[in-house]
Amino acid sequence: MHSFEYHHGELYCEQVPVSRIAKELGTPCYIYSHATLVRHFHAYDSAFKSIPHVIAFAMKANSNLAILRLMAREGSGVDIVSGGELFRALRAGVPASKIVFAGVGKAPDEIRDALKADILMFNVESPAELHAINQVAAEVGKKARIALRINPDIDPKTHPYISTGLKKSKFGIAAERAVEDFVLAASMSHIEVVGVHAHIGSQLTDVTPFTEALKKVVSLIGTLKERGLNIRYLNIGGGLGITYSDEKPPLPQDLSNAVLPLMQGLNVTLVMEPGRVIVGNAGILVTKAMYLKEGETKSFVIVDAAMNDLIRPSLYDAYHEVLPVNEESGRREKQTVDIVGPVCESGDFLAKDRLLPVVKPGELLAVMSAGAYGFVMASNYNSRPRVPEVLVRDGGFHVIRERERYEDLVKGEQIPSFLNTTE
Ligand SMILES: *Cc1c(COP(=O)(O)O)cnc(C)c1O
User: Distance, CA 49 to ligand 1 centroid (Å)?
Assistant: First the structure.
């Protein structure tokens, strides 16, 4: 469910024609729907309203300050994975008491900044990291609240979409040795063990992996309680999938229905880190067709957006639906095309083998479901300025990140004096 619909043959975001935004700001540009973001957050939040919970939006999916402020105002916290994300979260006004810090390679400076900000907790991925956090906490005279991230090792054969919760993964600590590491953590002078964390992967389209992982975590919490460890938080991570083409992912309510019965009597606060499911279908990338090219075996539509703007197709072979912004084209003949960008790489494509109404040069196309892992992965490759981001609310739109200029491309670069041509 999203707020991108056709009215009188024109694609709108809420009450604003996409073509109006493209005309004023140029293309390519990212457009997000305020109403969709709010609706998605509350779908998640209200599904878990019967128990104490914290939703920590996984901001690596979309870290624009305006999006973060919006989320914070609705009551969300954030899941961060770097010092830069901590900086953004605090700048956007996310309360530190709702910030959790994940990632296998937290640097001492990042740990220090997070301790000083007094974030809710660190999700710790190894004993070595425990030692590092304990040491930094001692230096700044604080006790670090931590959860240990468990790797529940869910069988990939039954659930092929799980990518981070496997034994071979770099994430988390094997469930078998978790008790030992919890005991180690509890013995450290500047560590306070408060939770157990498990994030098993992304774009999950079934609740079963969640419940399988949760069963392991719940049994672990039981063992830890027997050992005298007071576990107050259970973090089930993010990972709920979205519809890119014809997936039928569970709704947050389905997740809640599956998860809550397993938590009976646990007496913990549930922490969740949804990313994609909140922002994915709340955003699109608008691009303009420039040239049509007939290859030997394929037809290409060359557009002004490229892999540096949206890398998911190139990186993961990800599918994004592509729609004409003007539906009138629906009456045209159809043609199977590859939609490719101007970047000088064969891997630069947005869509392959799509049957679309014959595209005209100058026509606008909408790359759907681009709100998550879209702009955040954009780069300046081929010295292409990064594109603007726009937030639509009701009948108006707001630029929340302006288009980069050529000057931005060389910001911070310096030519050393020995290269001065006058010498
Ligand atoms: C990426 C990530 C998430 C969010 O995943 P989504 O699939 O976007 O919901 C949550 N938690 C952790 C630890 C992550 O690395």
Answer: 21
